[in-house]
Amino acid sequence: MNESVTLLTIFVLSVFVGIEVISKVSSTLHTPLMSGANAIHGIILLGAIIVTGSTDNAVAVVVGVVAIVLAAVNMVGGFVVTDRMLQMFTRKKPAKKVDA
Amino acid sequence: MPVWVQVAYLVCAVGFILALKGLSGPRTARTGNLIGAVAAVVGCAIPFFYLDLHHVPLILAAIVVGAAGGFVGARRVQMTQMPQMVALFNGVGGGAAALVALLELRELVAADEFAGSVPWFTLLATAFTILVGSVSFAGSVITFLKLQELMTSRPVVFPGLPVVFGLGLLAAVVLAVVTVVNPAEPVGVVLALVGLLIGVLLVLPVGGADVPIVISLLNAFTGLTVAAGGYVLGNTLLLVAGTLVGASGTFLTRLMASAMGRSVANILFGALKGGSTLGAGEASDRPVRSAGPEDVAILLEYADRVIVVPGYGLAVAQAQHTLRELVDVLGEKGVKVDYAIHPVAGRMPGHMNVLLAEAQVPYEQLVEMDDINGDFKNTDVVVVVGANDVVNPAAKTTPGAPIYGMPILNADEAQQIVFLKRSMRPGFAGIENELLFDPKTTLLFGDAKETLGKLLNAVKAL
């Protein structure tokens, strides 16, 4: 099978999976979901690492390093901030006991 | 690429699917996010083990710098500032994708000169990544500036904007075609610059209240950019992860837009069609009825059923905790109190739930709009704290109002309405609220936290 077609197949199937997995999300979780999805595309860090590590041109390395820094901010910041929000959603029960 | 690498990428991709799946339910959300984080870290570690990477110390240093920056930002940001933080994280991701594609274009140009056999579709995907990544970066930066109020949050339109925008799009298409026919680095750089221009022009005309939808849309853009980048690099993990975010982001954008009763196209280009999203943004001097905390305390004390409508102003005043105490005290006195949460309360969809969760309000008390709208007519007192547009009847009665068609909370059907307001300034959408002048309405002026504190003491004293 042609490699391009394989990649295209993966793309099309992923579109359906992407829509399917979040089709029943409640509006309560819209903000963390958006922020979590945001963190996932921080995986571009992987691409930035590969392109930077496979060139020796000075300008290209500098551009690559900038890309790595930006991507790492996206990935790490995204997951940490999402966790911070979700932490507040889950610590309900102990808080309720304190009130009572 | 060794087989174990491909399998490892597959495992990480499944991790991302589970992450998104988990994030869509309250009980599984935190675990889902953790799975996603682990998948991301593992995915990024893989190339170090199978590629002969150059500049490894430099790469690791860059990762540490970026990770530290992201971590500190994420820990320090206040919950009220969440929308602009998400916008910023999204923008840097888009920027990174565009830069990666520029570097990859360089490689492709070299390969093309050497063998002349780079498939046109790969070049097109590269051009797409450069362009849309730049759009996402510039658009997110403008979004950030608007939400952080470093620039006006009102729509910015200038004569000729549609023309410049159209020319920008045309230039982008031409440059993309040139990249496919005759790939060269300078063309890629110009394409990136055109992308930045388009991104700025795309977000400038969007009004403050609609900006959150744009964040979600740009998020989807970045996802697609990363997917295209994955195609160019032949990396299945990037392809799957980017596509998941692109698809779910697009779907989420449509969900949010429909919660506001608008189409995405209308949100983006509404201001261009004749300023319909421009509110006057000025305070009126029409007479209103105002009262003191003691009067409102009595009103609440003698009510059987109270609904609280919280808004962004509540969170800005950091008054969530005081509000929760007030609700608890009323509950002990036998008053049934719920919070009515509009889907777009706060500054991004679901934002209010996060803000109230921060104040440890039990989420059984948070009732979504569709479930509570029927209750307002049997409600004695509605307390509106720091909210405005989400109870503005203009959404139902005034065609042509910027928020016309947005589903609202039916606060106007209650027996009594109490507004806690700092001033008569209109809400985020910049339009006046008729409900403030309704004979059933009482206004309680002052800082939300201070006023709620006084109200709490007054209720306790009764």
From TrEMBL, chain A:
It is a multi-pass membrane protein. It catalyses: NAD(+) + NADPH + H(+)(in) = NADH + NADP(+) + H(+)(out). Its main location: membrane. Its EC number is 7.1.1.1. The chain crosses the membrane at residues 6-23, 35-52, 58-82. One of its GO terms (molecular function) is NADP binding. GO terms for biological process: NADPH regeneration. Pfam families: PNTB_4TM. Residues 8-91 form the NAD(P) transhydrogenase alpha subunit C-terminal domain. Keywords: Cell inner membrane, Cell membrane, Membrane, NAD, NADP, Translocase, Transmembrane, Transmembrane helix. The keyword Membrane applies. It is found in: Cell inner membrane. The transhydrogenation between NADH and NADP is coupled to respiration and ATP hydrolysis and functions as a proton pump across the membrane. This is proton-translocating NAD(P)(+) transhydrogenase.
From TrEMBL, chain B:
It comes from the Bacteria. SUPFAM superfamilies: DHS-like NAD/FAD-binding domain. The keyword Signal does not apply. Its main location: membrane. One of its GO terms (cellular component) is plasma membrane. Belongs to the PNT beta subunit family. This is NAD(P) transhydrogenase subunit beta. It comes from Nocardioides mangrovicus.
